[in-house]
Amino acid sequence: MGLYAIGDVQGCTTCLRRLLDTIKFDPSIDRLWFVGDLVNRGPDSLGSLRLIRELDDCSVSVLGNHDLHLIAAAYGVAKVKTGDTLQDILDAYDCAELIDWLRHRPLFHVESPYCLVHAGVAPQWSIDDAVRYASEVERVLQSDRISEFLTHMYGNEPSLWSEHLTGWNRLRLITNTFTRIRYCTSQGVLQMKEKRAPCETDQPIIPWFEFQSRNTDFSTIVFGHWSTLGLRINQNSIAVDTGCVWGGALTAVQLDNNNQVFQVSCS
Known about the structure:
five-stranded mixed β-sheet
C-alpha cells in the first residue's frame, strides 16, 4: 500500500501514465494525491481530466488556479487565452460532467500529519482555520451561485488576511491563498506576481512555507504550483511541482515510505 503525492500534471497525460507505471500503481491498495492544476498548457488536458476522474475512488485532487480558470471558461465567465489548452475539454461530449466533477473538488485536504493544497496556506491560519476557510469557497463553488463567484474571483486584492473581511473580497483572498500564493512579506501580505525561485529574487519577500511562526508549522503541507522552486522536501513542507509541462519532470513522492521520490522526464 502506498500514498503518493503527484505534482502538477497540466494535461501531460502520457507522462502521468508513465509515472503510474513507474510506481507500479495498484488502485486496489494505493492512493494518489494530486496537487491540482490537472489541466492546461500541456498537450492533452481532456485526457488528463478524464483519467484522474476515473481514479476518483483511490485519489484526492485539490483545485489549482488552472482548474478554476477552466471552470470559469466553461461557465462563460473567462475567455480561453493564447497558450491555453482547454478547448478540447470545452468541446467534449462529457464537458458538463467533467466540470461538475471538477467544481466539487476541495481546495484543502487534511489527513494528519499531512495537508494537501495547490499553492499554500496563509501564515496567519491554523489547520482548522484553513479547513474552515476552504469550505467557505467550496460551498459557493458547489452551489447555484457559482457564476457569481467566478465573476468576482479574479484580482490580487485584498492581499492581507483579516477575519473581518466579508463578501467577495474574503472569498477572493481565500481562493488566491490556496491556489496562487508563493511569497508573502514579513507582515504576512500575500505576493502574487513573483514566480522566480527564492535564490533569483531580490525582493524583500519570504516563501510562504518559510514564514517564521507559521501557524501550520507542526503539519507537513504538500503543495505544487511553483515549478521554478522544484522538488523540495522539508520537515514541514513538500513541494512537488517539477515543471513537467515546461520540459522538466513529473514527480511522485511516496509519503508513507520516507518520502521516496519517483520521476519521469517530460519533453
